[in-house]
Specification:
It is a single chain. This protein is of the alpha/beta class and 198 residues long. It has one domain. 33% of the residues lie in helices and 29% in strands. The strands form three sheets. It has a four-stranded mixed β-sheet with strand order 8-7-6-9, with helices on one face. Helix 6 runs antiparallel to helix 7. The mean pLDDT is 79.
Length: 198
C-alpha cells in the first residue's frame, strides 16, 4: 500500500530543484502560519520578483523556500533541498552533496535540524568550501555524503505533502478531486487519502 500511495503522490508531484529556490529558516512563536503571513513577514528576503513560497513549520522554526517561478496550480510542489534533508535527517551532523551534470547542491544538518541549502552552478565542491561550512555551522565531525543518483532518495509520503500543504495553491478537497479525476484510481485508495487529509 505504501508503494501505491507513493506512486500516486509521485504522479501529482513536482520537485523544485535547489538551483531554482532560495532557502531561509527563522525562529517563530507558536502560532498558525499561512502563506500570506509568511509572504508579508519574509517576502522582502526573496531574491525573486515573480516567484512563490514553499514553507513548513516545525518545533518553533519556519523553513522557507522562495521559488524562482510561480507554483503550478494542480501539482504538489516539494523543494529538492527538503528531500535531501529528509533522506539524512537521522544524522547528528552531515553535509550532503548532490552532484548534477552542471551544478551541485549542498544541505547541512546539525542535531537532526536542517540548517542550510547551497546551490552552485558550473562548480565543484572543494575542500575549502566544505571547511568553511564546518566553521560557519559549528560542525565538529560531520559525515560528508556525496550523492550522484538522487532517484531513490525522493520517495514521498503523505506526511511530506501535509508538511507543505499551507503552501499549495489548492486545498485538500480540490487535491482529492484532482487525484480522482485524473487517475480514476480505485475508490478504496481515494478513501485512504481522505482519511490522511482529514
Amino acid at each position: 500500500m505504501a508503494k501505491l500511495i507513493s506512486g500516486i503522490l509521485g504522479y501529482f508531484t513536482e520537485i523544485i530543484p535547489s538551483g531554482e529556490t532560495y532557502f531561509i529558516s527563522r525562529t517563530v512563536p507558536d502560532t498558525k502560519l499561512t502563506k500570506e503571513i509568511v509572504q508579508l513577514n519574509y517576502g522582502s528576503l526573496s531574491p525573486y520578483k515573480n516567484g512563490d513560497i514553499l514553507f513548513f513549520k516545525d518545533e518553533g522554526k519556519v523553513y522557507i523556500w522562495f521559488t524562482k517561478n510561480k507554483l503550478p496550480a494542480k501539482k504538489v510542489s516539494i523543494p529538492e533541498g527538503f528531500l535531501l534533508f529528509k533522506a539524512y535527517d537521522n544524522k547528528n551532523e552531515a553535509i550532503i552533496i548532490l552532484r548534477k551534470a552542471d551544478s551541485y547542491n549542498i544541505v547541512v544538518v546539525r542535531n537532526k535540524i536542517f540548517l542550510t541549502q547551497v546551490s552552485k552552478i558550473n562548480a565543484e565542491p572543494d575542500t575549502q568550501f566544505i571547511e568553511m561550512l564546518k566553521k560557519e555551522y559549528s560542525l565538529k565531525n560531520p559525515e560528508v555524503v556525496t550523492i550522484v543518483n538522487s532517484d531513490d532518495l525522493f520517495k514521498l509520503s503523505i506526511k511530506d505533502v501535509l508538511l507543505f500543504f499551507d503552501s499549495f495553491n489548492f486545498n485538500a478537497k480540490s487535491f482529492i478531486n484532482l487525484v480522482y479525476e485524473q487517475s480514476k484510481i480505485p475508490v478504496i485508495v481515494l478513501l485512504i487519502l481522505i482519511s490522511f487529509l482529514d
